[in-house]
Design a protein that fits this description.
The complex is a heterodimer of chains A (110) and B (112). With 110 residues, chain A is mostly beta strands. Helices cover 0% and strands 55% of the residues of chain A. In chain A, the strands form two sheets. In chain A, strands 2, 4, 5, 9, 10 and 11 form a six-stranded mixed beta sheet that branches. Chain A is globular. Chain B has 112 residues and is mainly β. In chain B, the strands form two sheets. In chain B, strands 2, 4, 5, 6, 9, 10 and 11 form a seven-stranded mixed beta sheet that branches. A four-stranded antiparallel beta sheet of chain B has the order 1-3-8-7, with no helix packed on it. Classes of the chains: A mainly beta (110), B mainly beta (112). At the A-B interface, strand 5, strand 9 and strand 10 of A face strand 4, strand 5, strand 9 and strand 10 of B.
């Protein structure tokens, strides 16, 4: 059973479009993290959300943590080709262990 | 601060061999976790070490083992390699008291 469900799994859009990626769980998490991973590299941390209802912005990326701390979303405004990559949400399951969603592969075409 | 480093970056082995991968965490981080990433299974937790002790272990066979040294550097070993062990092996470190993990670039292992 996947504790964190991400949707969609694949997304191919044109430069300038907006998109939202969802990360859902039936479990409550103390925090959720979003990572971006490029082929052949390790995941790079984008943001950690900790408080229910929290919204964090990172340039054109907006992250939201659900009020009940069971879900999160990542919204990208005016996507650029440089946003292409695998987006992963992750939550702590036990000390030192993160549970990852299956990821969303985003392709932004020029 | 320098990030998490992993060596080697790429490795080719044959079935039945064993392999050792190395990870140096961010300076001051004492927790080191290892993950296996494959296209089919995604990122799966292998084990986590803190102060030279394994604190948590994922659902992998005993062929997968690890250790941590007094300087927090960590190694993982896979014995009797199988074709299915081909994957990207990622190491991540965390500062004390934080759940956020910082990943290295990974070691790409190919088993032929």
């Amino acid at each position: 059973t996947q504790l964190l469900e991400q949707s969609p799994q694949f997304l191919s859009i044109q430069e300038g479009e907006n998109l939202t990626v969802y990360c859902n769980s039936s479990s409550v998490f103390s925090s959720l993290q979003w990572y971006r991973q490029e082929p052949g590299e390790g995941p790079v941390l984008l943001v950690t959300v900790v408080t229910g209802g929290e919204v964090k912005k990172l340039k054109r990326l907006t992250f939201q943590f659900g009020d009940a701390r069971k879900d999160s979303s990542l919204h990208i405004t005016a996507a650029q080709p440089g946003d292409t990559g695998l987006y992963l949400c992750a939550g702590p399951f036990m000390t030192g262990k993160l549970i990852f969603g299956q990821g969303t592969t985003l392709q932004v075409k020029p | 601060k320098a990030g998490v480093t992993q060596t080697p970056r790429y490795l080719i082995k044959t079935r039945g061999q064993q392999v050792t991968l190395s990870c140096s965490p961010i300076s001051g981080h004492r927790s080191v976790s290892w993950y296996q990433q494959t296209p089919g299974q995604g990122l799966q937790f292998l084990f986590e070490y803190f102060s030279e002790t394994q604190r948590n272990k994922g659902n992998f066979p005993g062929r997968f083992s690890g250790r941590q040294f007094s300087n927090s550097r960590s190694e993982m070993n896979v014995s009797t390699l199988e074709l299915g062990d081909s994957a990207l092996y990622l190491c991540a470190s965390s500062p004390l008291g934080q759940e956020t993990q910082y990943f290295g670039p990974g070691t790409r292992l190919l088993v032929l």
